[in-house]
Amino acid sequence: MTHRIIFYPVGNGDTCQIVLENGKRILMDYRHRKKTELGEGPEINLKERLKKELDDAKRDSFDVVAFTHGDTDHLENSTEFFHLRHAAKYQGEGRIKIDTLWVPAAMVLECGTNGQQSSEFVIWRQEARHRLKEGKGIRVFSKPEKLKGWLEENDLTLESRRHLITDAGQLAPDFNLASDGVEFFCHSPFIKHVDDGDDLRNAASLIFNVRFRKGFNDYDYLAVGDSEWCVLEDIVKTTKYHNNMDRLAWDLYNIPHHCSYLALNKDKGEYETVPTPLVAEILMAGKEGAYVVSSSCPIPDTKEAREEPQPPHIQARKCYQTYLKKTGGAKFLVTMEEPNATKPEPLEFKIDENGLSLTRATAAAANIIISKPTPRAG
C-alpha cells in the first residue's frame, strides 16, 4: 500500500491530489480549462481526469477539498464540478461532493464588490459561510478578529465554532499519523495576515507541512499557495521561535505562485534570483534526494523569458536548481514540461516501504520510477 501525491498539468494554476493508503482523498485547488473539453491543450482535461479517478475508486466525493485562496487560477470552473450545499442550482447528478471544505479565513471574510471578484469566488464564499453557519463540513484556517466579528454579526459565537477553526502552528484534526499515515501542520495564514492587511489573497493563503508516515519513517511535503517572500520570512521567524524547524524540512516542495521570483525576493535578478536569507533557510531545508515541483507553464531559458514580467520566471527556476544542488536534491520539475511540453501528464509521487519515488509516464507508456532511498530509522 502507498500514499500518492499527484500534480496535474493545468498551466499557470494549481491542482494537487493526495490519495492516502487508506483510500482517503484530499484535493488542493482546482483549475479546469474549458478548451480541454474540445480536445485543445496542452493542459489536461482535469474534470474528465478527476471523475475517472473517482469512478475507478467507486467514489463520488473527496474527503477534503482545500482552496488555498480565492484567485481564479486556483478555482476556475470549480462551481460546475462540485456539489455545493448552499443552493440547489449547484446540485444534481454527477456533481462531486465535498465532505469537508478547507479554506483560509480570508475566503469567508473578503467583502469586495462582485465586480472586484470573480463570480466563482463569490459562490465559494457563500458556500463557506453556509457551512460555517451550519457548523459542519468545513475547516477555517486562522481566527482573526474579523472572523469573530463576522460570526457575531450572524448571531454566532467564536466559541460555538472553535472546533471548526485551526490556527497557524496547529495540526488540522481531520487527519492523524496513527490512523491515516498523514498530518497537516498549518504554517499560515497568521492572524495578522488577515487583520492587518488589505491583501486577503496571496498573503493569507494556506501553507502546510504535510507529513506522511510509512513504517518508521516520515516524509515531508511543503505545500505552499501563492505566497510571497515576506510571508515566508514570517513563517521562518515564527517556526524558529517555536522550535519547529523540522516543519520546514521537505522531501517535496510545491513552490509558491507558479515559480514567481516574488516568492524568493523583491528583486528578480538578471540571470538568477538571490533569495533573502530567511527564504534561503527554507531552500536549505530540502532533504537529500528531494524534489521541487513548479505548477506552471514551461520555463524556457531565453532572453524573452528573462524579461517576462509574469510568472513563471527563469531567474527563480535557476535559484531553486542552485539550492537543489547545494542540498543534494533530485530534480526541479515543471508540471507543463513532463514528460514534454506538447502533451504533459500528471506527475505522481509515491510513498511506500522503499521511500519516496516519482513515477512518470513516458512516450512509450512505460513507467520510470526514480526512488529516494528510505532513510535510516531513528
Description:
- It is built from 11 helices and 16 strands.
- The protein has helices at residues 46-56, 105-109, 119-134, 145-153, 158-161, 177-180, 191-195, 229-241, 277-284, 303-307, 314-327, and strands spanning 3-7, 16-19, 25-28, 61-66, 97-104, 138-141, 165-166, 182-188, 207-214, 217-224, 250-254, 286-294, 331-334, 347-352, 355-361, 367-372.
- The strands form 2 sheets. It has a 10-stranded mixed sheet. A 6-stranded mixed sheet has the order 8-9-10-11-12-13.
- The relative contact order is 0.12.
SSE map:
Layout (H helix, E strand, L loop, with lengths): L2 E5 L8 E4 L5 E4 L17 H11 L4 E6 L30 E8 H5 L9 H16 L3 E4 L3 H9 L4 H4 L3 E2 L10 H4 L1 E7 L2 H5 L11 E8 L2 E8 L4 H13 L8 E5 L22 H8 L1 E9 L8 H5 L6 H14 L3 E4 L12 E6 L2 E7 L5 E6 L6
Parallel strand pairs: 3-4, 4-5, 5-6, 6-7, 10-11, 11-12, 12-13
Antiparallel strand pairs: 1-2, 1-14, 2-3, 8-9, 9-10, 14-15, 15-16
Helix pairs in contact: 8-9
